[in-house]
Amino acid sequence: MDRVPALEEPLKKLLGGPTAKVMAEHLDLHTVGDLLHHYPRRYEERGQLTKLAELPLDEDVTVVAQVADARVHTFNGGRGQRLEITITDGSGRLQLVFFGRGIHKPHKELLPGSRAMFAGKVSMFNRRMQLAHPTYAKLGADPADGDDAVDIDSWAGALIPIYPACKGLESWKIAKAVDAVLPSAQEAVDPLPEALREGRGFVSLPEALLKVHRPHTKADIEDARQRLKWDEAFVLQVALARRRHADGQLPAVARRPAPGGLLDAFDAKLPFTLTEGQRKVSKEIFDDLATEHPMHRLLQGEVGSGKTMVALRAMLAVVDSGGQAALLAPTEVLAQQHHRSITEMMGELAEGGMLGGSDLGTKVVLLTGSMGMPARRQALLDLVTGEAGVVIGTHALIEDKVQFHDLGLVVVDEQHRFGVEQRDALRGKGKQPPHLLVMTATPIPRTVAMTVFGDLETSVLDQLPAGRSPIASHVVPAQDKPHFLARAWERVREEVDKGHQAYVVCPRIGDDEDEAKSAKGKKKAEEAETADKRPPLAVIEIADQLSKGPLKGLRTEILHGRMQPDDKDDVMRRFGAGEVDVLVATTVIEVGVNVPNATAMVIMDADRFGVSQLHQLRGRVGRGSAPGLCLLVTDMPEASPARARLNAVASTLDGFELSRIDLEQRREGDVLGQAQSGVRSSLRMLTVIDDEEVIAAAREEAATVVAEDPDLAHLPGLRTALDALLDKDREQYLDKG
Questions:
Q1: CA 451 and chain centroid, separation
Q2: Going by fewer Cβ within 10 Å, which terminus of the chain is more open, N or C?
Q3: CA–CA separation, 578 and 415 (whole Å)
Q4: Judging by DSSP bridges, how do beta strands 128-132 and 501-505 pair with one another?
Q5: 641-651 and 655-666 are packed helices; what angle lies between their axes, rounded to 10 degrees?
């Protein structure tokens, strides 16, 4: 029988069942290799202690400190006992408390003057921070003292690694487990081609693993980090480069617009000229469409930069060439909005084959899940006969019964809302692979684009069309300065008095279903230390308060995701027609909603939204000739991180700058989302914002390697690393793109 490679050995075999079970369930570590790639978060130096003065409340922490004093108190008439130990690190003091029978061992071991590593959750009692029943390991103790004693010298000299830990498995227990598997590091297969490794002066992979877990000096840590970052960046970029290469081998029908056809007719009736950016990006897209392998392009741009116009022109070019184009939108509101604005922009060109329609025109149909049966049947017929050149729809487009005559282009709006399987199902509806254009209105820093969408060519629209107005943004601290909130509602009234309209956005709907969810979440909320202990503000309640109070007499309507589709469409249509003054809504208006007359937006509980989401929402105002106003209402105190985030949004309209701030705060796990979700060895050492140069260099090296050897036949180590990154499901996942 074949021997299992050392790094694929199950942890259960080496560490025993209970420890392996906790590692699997809480840290997603299953094999020796997984544990070797579970790197220390930081390192403690002997003599340099964690600052107790800076401990975060309600978080699990590991601290190294010295015992200052220990006292046993009795209560309940002497029946109960409590051990209070004060520890210090020179910067501050912290209390440890143990109760009942749990006091005997620490009372005997944690004598004044002794030093130990402590782990537990920081809580507050009588206005003082404390750790209740922390686990601990003595430092510099005699190994004979028992199992949990940790001899610093055996920890590779002076640097103690502190690992990402979990309840039931403290950092030092993980360190012990690492000690048990560390000899296997010698068998780690190096993914980097030898020439690349030597050219860049990297240590070998076994050496890097040894140095990251048991460094003797800070230089060891640096050597290891540089090497391990490169591995992550390079293996991921090779996976993406192979996808780009494979896509380049697929056949597709070249789609070129016919001179004097539908696209020319559309361009001739445009009431404005395209921006320089729109022209440049359109050329990139048309060049891709004219080739005989499928286009894979990401179109990202500022809110309101005219991405829909660029996408529509690409769709018309495909219709010109005899094909069909599909636009996939994440919500019905957005699909209906796209359908309405595209048919308005095209005019008689959107009525091909109809009375009064243009000879050059085509049919533009809408397909959503909530359509009535007769309209749906007609739409399906128009698609299969080729009568409809352009279809706009939601997930309903993906269903089996939907068939196209000749699907040539798929445009996916708001990429991050769709799973790979959904996009793949739509792409599978073409006789040959259709061209793919992915749009996102959330600007993505270059590094993220290279890491997540590395298989897509990227086009950026960063110029706003002429006639767009600036948007002024301000933070409204409702708790500190209630008169600011009163003034916010006055400003809304002033805008309506000038003939304009306004949005008020809330994080919650506030209906029965909402209440059930919030009751469920109430317990969690009570446990968490939030600033205000109240549930997020709700559309239904706020609309009621406003129409009876500060906005009395104005025509106020509500819009949220659980309304009937016809009702939603009716509200949006009336708001667009100017029959509604104030729309109180959830984030259903976040993307694509275009009402040029809406000039003001008040976002309630703004701290509960992400940076990119606030930027998206704000982009709904200032779309006409009058300046826009966005007011970010919050109860959070001035010094809080949430306020810093809101101040950042208020201070710049540059979406790329904001996406960097967002990424720095949320870290890439969130941002990489689906592109990384299946990848077990997701980014551990690499941070996409800080390591821009590493990612760019790895991308270039990966492209060279794949061009020379697409199957990696001569690089077995790299092939093994790729297989570990992409098991069969993940490989398919990436292949689907």
A1: 13
A2: N
A3: 31
A4: unpaired
A5: 170
328-377 tens-digit pLDDT: 988 888 888 889 889 988 988 888 765 555 678 899 999 998 888 999 99
Nearest to 383 by CA among 375, 241, 81, 724: 375
User: Residue 127: left if φ>0, alpha if ψ -120 to 50, beta else—which one?
Assistant: left
Residue among 477, 443, 474, 447 at smallest CA distance from 461:
443
Of 82, 46, 40, nearest to 65 by C-alpha is 46
Give the span between the Cα atoms of 565 and 571, in whole angstroms.
10
Tokens (6 digits) for 131: 């750790």
Higher pLDDT, 513 or 617: 617
Give the pLDDT confidence of 598-611 residue by residue, as tens digits.
Answer: 999 999 999 999 88
Of the two residues 721 and 378, the one the predictor is more confident about is: 378
Which residues touch 494 (CB under 8 Å, ≥6 apart)?
Answer: none
pLDDT category at 168 given cuts 50, 70, 90 is confident
**pLDDT: which is higher, 670 or 454:** 454
**Max mean pLDDT range (163-177, 193-207, 655-669):** 193-207
Tell me: the pLDDT tens digits for 412-450? Answer: 887 555 655 666 777 778 888 899 998 887 777 766 776
Q: What beta strand segments (E) does 286-355 contain? A: 296-301, 324-328
| Strand, helix or coil for residue 632 | strand
Q: CA-CA distances (angstroms) from residue 251 to 15, 386, 436, 666? A: 51, 22, 13, 40
Task: Go through 579-617 and write b for each residue having 16 or more CB atoms within 10 A of its CB, e for each that does not.
Answer: ebbbbbbbbbbbbbbbbbbbbbbbbbbbbbbbbbbbbbb
Tokens of 344: 């308005």
Between the alpha carbon of residue 462 and those of residues 174, 457, 587, 593, the distances in Å are: 47, 16, 24, 19
The single residue listed with the structure tokens 């499901």 is 729
Residues with Cβ within 8 Å of 138's Cβ and at least 6 positions away in sequence, in order, are: 109, 110, 114, 115, 116, 145, 148, 149, 150
For 517-574, how does the pLDDT look when each residue is reduced to its tens digit (9 = 90+)? 555 554 443 333 333 457 888 999 999 999 999 999 999 999 998 888 888 889 988 9
DSSP string, 561-609: TTS-HHHHHHHHHHHHTT--SEEEE-GGGSSS---TTEEEEEETTGGGS
Q: Which two tokens stand for residue 415?
A: 């990429």
Query: Residue 192 corresponds to which tokens in the numbers above?
Result: 């980097």
Structure tokens at 263: 């696209």
| Whole-number Cα distances in Å, 675 to 43, 428, 453, 669 | 31, 20, 8, 10
SS3 category, 620: coil
For 458, the 3-state DSSP assignment is strand
Helix (H), strand (E) at residue 44: strand 42-45
Comparing C-alpha atoms, which of 134, 114, 110, 107 is closest to residue 122? 134
How far apart, in whole angstroms, are the C-alpha atoms of residue 405 and residue 414? Answer: 26
Helix (H) / strand (E) element for 660: namely helix 655-666
Instruction: Indicate the pLDDT class of residue 666, thresholds 50, 70 and 90.
Output: low
Write out pLDDT tens, residues 287-298. 999 999 999 898
Give Rg (Cα) of the chain. 30
What is Dmax (Cα atoms) for the chain?
97
At 9, the amino acid letter reads: E
User: CA–CA separation, 369 vs 133, rounded Å?
Assistant: 55
Residue 417 tokens read as 């809302």
